[in-house]
Amino acid sequence: MERYQHYIGGQWVDPASGDWFDSVNPYTGDVWAKIAKGNAADVDRAVASANNAFESGWADVKPTERGRLLYKLADLIERDAQRLGEIEVRDNGKLIAEMSAQTHYMSQWYRYYGGLADKVEGAVIPTDKAGIFNFTRYEPLGVVAMITAWNSPLLLLSWKLSVALAAGNTAVIKPSEFTSASTLEFMNLIEEAGIPPGVVNTVSGFGQDVGAELVAHPDVAKIAFTGSDRTGQKINKIAASTFKHVTLELGGKSPNIVFEDADIESAVMGAISGIFAATGQTCIAGSRLLLQRSIHDQFVERLIEVAKTAQIGDPMSTDTHVGPVTTPPQYQKILDYIEIAKQDGAKCVLGGQAYTGPAAKGGQFIEPTIFTDVNNKMRIAQEEVFGPLLAVIPFDTEEDAISIGNDVDFGLAAGVWTQDIGRAIRMSEKLRVGTVWVNTYRAVSFTSPFGGYKRSGIGRESGLEAIKQYMQVKSVWIAQQTSPANPFIMR
Ligand code: NAD
């Protein structure tokens, strides 16, 4: 049985409480690792270590050198990507094909921000004040607490850690209690890359015991969070009381909108990828499929045909398309939403139940499920399920599609399928979401900002702008000659 301690100040340490919790493989149901159960004392120790590393010099390490360390880390990630991907599958049950692709790809965030580290420039400001020289400089914030969700632990962490370190901050990480192992394993690479002790720390444990303590801690300067909108809301309230910076990457109820002029076969594949990839456990799930009425029946027929070919089973097999649901509460939530949708009058045209066949082994599986006859007021159309449940909603005109697409509290992403370039541009302007994909779905990159409108979050990760969200700007005024001035009026 594996055993994972906290990683604090460059040391592996036992939890202050002496307590451990289980990490369960969602496919076999087996407990495969024991994880340190953190509490306020562990958080204090980790924040002190990160604060000390910040004050004692990490922020003063030249940005080019910080970049060099991030490049080294990127090389180590590539070397170990397959192994890290396998650990993630053991913890979250997502497909090995997806997880190992993610762990390979995440090295790019460290290269991108490693390269950017020494290119964040202040400016000489041409002010209107005579005889005073004014310039700006960008400085790191301090200790950043990174709290992540269970669905893509290392990728979500890398979106934060790469940029935070490049900017000169230090980090205390709290991975999800369901998937802590890959983050703790990753600390070995931090050490091997030569990142100084205390710059990156990880305290594992539960939201209330570790996450909330980090959010309230007076020496934490910023919270970078990925998780549900409800937890994000709580975090934002508490963070406000100590004036912390926040980046919140939250949930979604994204519309995947298909017009009658679309390439139908591509759109069918896009709809399938939007909801059944990752067993629907992705923030960018295209969980509402908006179909123009003229193609509705034909599209649904083909969708069912393709969805029926999805192989359910072992996430470690490259032949599997739909793996288990990661956590028991999530499994129950999906089953509850199937009942809610039925009671609200949606028509289940595929799946609609748990899968308990031989390929299920010890895992909790839900059959790929499609509901038609959904109207946008129903709970299945308004609330994030985070599972393989698709709500199909018909529309008539472009205006209808925009109005239904925007009529939810969330605003993370949207897909638009059309051959009409004018329509593609109009739709991308009118949809109130952080990402619009036209004739594709689920594309993300280190080069492009990612984040939500409305209840889907605050701030952006990835791309050039993100680095300034981990820094603050200082304005410096230097008088070119000393001259006493009237002290009672503003200069
Ligand atoms: P969650 O909100 O339950 O938990 C997320 C993290 O917050 C965990 O580490 C948890 O321990 C911690 N936490 C819980 N309570 C806390 C508290 N009071 N204070 C501080 N931390 C606390 O979310 P989840 O179930 O792990 O993840 C699924 C959610 O994440 C979905 O809503 C999904 O859409 C969202 N998500 C968003 C993105 C994005 O980039 N926008 C990406 C992936 C997942």
Give the topology, please.
Layout: E1 2-4, E2 6-8, E3 11-13, E4 20-24, E5 31-36, H1 40-55, H2 63-92, H3 96-105, H4 107-116, E6 132-140, E7 143-147, H5 153-166, E8 170-174, H6 181-192, E9 200-202, H7 207-216, E10 222-226, H8 229-241, E11 245-249, E12 255-258, H9 264-276, E13 288-292, H10 296-307, H11 328-343, E14 347-350, E15 354-355, E16 365-366, E17 369-372, H12 379-382, E18 389-395, H13 398-406, E19 410-411, E20 413-417, H14 421-430, E21 435-438, E22 453-454, E23 457-458, E24 471-479
Parallel strand pairs: 1-5, 7-8, 7-10, 8-9, 10-11, 12-13, 12-20, 13-18, 17-18, 20-21
Antiparallel strand pairs: 2-3, 4-5, 6-24, 11-23, 14-17, 15-16, 19-22
Helix pairs in contact: 1-7, 2-3, 2-4, 2-5, 2-6, 4-5, 9-10
The structure holds nicotinamide-adenine-dinucleotide (NAD).
Nicotinamide-adenine-dinucleotide binds next to α7 and α8.
